[in-house]
TrEMBL record:
Mechanosensitive ion channel MscS domain location: 279-345
Assigned keywords, A-Z: Cell membrane, Membrane, Transmembrane, Transmembrane helix
Lineage, highest ranks first: Bacteria, Pseudomonadati, Bdellovibrionota, Bdellovibrionia, Bdellovibrionales
Record's protein name: MscS Mechanosensitive ion channel
Organism in which the protein naturally occurs: Micavibrio aeruginosavorus EPB
GO CC term (a single one): plasma membrane
InterPro entries in UniProt: LSM_dom_sf, MS_channel_1st, MS_channel_C, MscS-like_channel, MscS_beta-dom_sf, MscS_channel_2nd, MscS_channel_C_sf, MscS_channel_TM-2
Membrane topology category: Multi-pass membrane protein
Alphabetized Gene3D superfamilies for the sequence: 1.10.287.1260, 2.30.30.60, 3.30.70.100
Similarity annotation: Belongs to the MscS (TC 1.A.23) family.
Alphabetical list of Pfam families matching this protein: MS_channel_1st (PF21088), MS_channel_2nd (PF00924), MS_channel_3rd (PF21082)
Length: 449
């Protein structure tokens, strides 16, 4: 059996708490007594229990109505002969069926219960009803925001402000946030300013992003512009609008931008050092688009030997699709600092060379004629410029040749066509009994005895 705590124990706990929080013990004790008296007088009462039962009953019935009727309402809305936008609005309202039902039930209670039970108190029911109405209106209004995360954040923040206002805590909350501040020289930064800055900047950046996406979609419909020009203009519009959005958001929150000059300069240096590679990739990507050395659709060969097609050029990296259908994300900076072969620049035709050798017993003129014949009729080999076969030298074990031809589709790779030409050379050499040499070594053993 646990003994009841003594007054001395309660007083020592109060003093310890006051010491930790750095508050006057007498003031803390007075506040605790006041909070306890208010709780007993306003919360732990029969009227509050009745209101809680009414609210819980309305919530249960509301969710039950939603569970029973939601699927049927969806079918009815889909069968309506109405414009798509009307159906979409009705579907959004259907998804709010539970809070709408709760609001209707609580409103009926507020309308009829006072006439049936004259002395009943419905202050808590009234507050919950207004909270539910605010939630319904906010959820319907924020449907214009397409980003789900942004939509939920805006709805939560707006509803929280509405809740504080309904319960009468908004002014106290604003005063508490305004009283919490950080002073940097002559500039005072309060918690309220930070909250307003974050909210205003978030809204303005989202609006800027939506406008930039709209501009990029409109640019796609202009056939006279190249894909690189569209991408460059889209990047510039997005960057400019984002900077303007941040500045407008700070100004709307009441921040004096001139007072932040020194502080923002120091922060800018730190952020610049931390994002050095990212900023470098951003501007090198814009440089590539401006000088058009690499554009979406070009076939490029990297310093590592890989060949692929540029699919898209982003703010941080460029996506290249290789012949084996793998997607490689290459930082833009590497495309400027590392050697890159652009097969599409100056024409799509690409020269392919196949090196081979034959035995010294054969006529080089015959070999050149047979080798050139292997390129005739091949669907990937161009007949102009004309294929050629060169006699390149007398090797250690063979007569060396180089067969050159041009293709118009380097994005499909060169390994496959080299393999086909080598097989064709093997077949024609086999038909004419031409030998392909291999190294010979002679070992002499000297007997000293």
């Amino acid at each position: 059996m646990t003994a009841a705590s003594s007054p001395k124990t309660d007083e020592s706990i109060t003093n310890l708490t006051a010491e930790v929080l750095d508050i006057d013990p007498a003031a803390l004790k007075s506040w605790i007594e006041h909070a306890s008296d208010w709780t007993v007088a306003n919360v732990l009462t029969l009227d509050t229990a009745i209101e809680a039962i009414i609210i819980l009953a309305a919530i249960s019935v509301g969710f039950m109505i939603d569970k029973i009727s939601s699927a049927k309402l969806a079918q009815v809305i889909n069968r309506l002969h109405a414009p798509h936008i009307v159906k979409r609005v009705l579907q959004k309202i259907r998804k709010s069926l539970a809070p709408v039902s709760i609001f209707i039930l609580l409103s009926l209670c507020l309308t009829f219960l006072p006439s049936m039970i004259p002395d009943i108190r419905l202050g808590l029911v009234d507050a919950v009803t207004r909270l539910t109405a605010a939630w319904i209106v906010i959820r319907l209004v924020v449907q214009i925001v397409h980003n789900p995360t942004m939509r939920n954040v805006i709805a939560f923040i707006t509803w929280s402000i509405a809740a504080l206002s309904i319960f009468g805590f908004l002014d106290d909350t604003v005063e508490a946030l305004n009283a919490t501040s950080l002073t940097i020289g002559d500039f005072q930064l309060t918690a309220l300013t930070v909250v307003k800055c974050l909210f205003a900047t978030m809204i303005m950046v989202y609006i800027a992003s939506s406008i930039s996406r709209t501009v990029e979609r409109r640019l796609i419909n202009i056939p006279a512009m190249t894909s690189g020009s569209r991408l460059l203009i889209g990047k510039i519009v997005r960057i400019v609008l984002t900077i303007l959005a941040v500045m407008i958001g700070l100004t709307m929150a009441g921040v004096n931008l001139s007072a932040l000059a020194v502080f923002s300069g120091a922060v800018g240096i730190g952020v610049g050092l931390g994002l050095q590679r990212g900023v470098s990739n951003l501007f090198t990507g814009m440089m590539l688009l401006m000088d058009r050395t690499i554009q979406p659709g070009d076939v490029i060969e990297l310093s590592t030997g890989g060949i692929g097609t540029v699919k898209q050029m982003g703010s941080r990296c460029t996506e290249v699709i290789t012949l084996d259908r793998r997607s490689y994300l290459i930082p833009n900076e590497e495309l400027v600092t590392q050697p890159v072969i652009n097969w599409s620049r100056g024409g799509r035709e690409s020269l392919v060379s196949v090196v081979f050798g034959v035995d010294y017993s054969h006529n080089p003129h015959q070999i050149i004629t047979l080798a050139r014949a292997t390129t005739d009729g091949h669907p990937r080999i161009l007949q102009f410029p004309e294929p050629s076969c060169l006699f390149t030298g007398f090797g250690d074990n063979s007569l060396d040749f180089q067969l050159n031809f041009w293709i118009a589709d380097p994005e499909n790779g060169t390994a496959g066509i080299k393999s086909e030409i080598l097989l064709a050379l093997w077949d024609v050499f086999d038909q004419h009994d031409i030998k392909i040499p291999y190294p010979h070594r002679e070992v002499f053993i000297h007997n000293k005895s």
